[in-house]
Amino acid sequence: MAKLIVLTVLSLFLFSCNNSECQTQQEKSSENQAAACPAPEPEPEPVPEPLPDEGEEVPHEALIFDAKVDLFNFERLDEDKVLKAIEIIKTVIATKEFRDQVIGYTYQGKKTFVDNKGFSNQQIYQMLLDGKEDLRPEIDHEMDLELELYYSWTSTVGYTTANSLRIFMNTKFFDNYSPAQVAGNVFHEWIHKLGFTHDSSYSVSRDSSVPYAIGYIMRDLGRKYE
Ligand SMILES: [Zn+2]
Question: Which CATH class is domain 60-225?
Answer without folding.
Answer: alpha beta
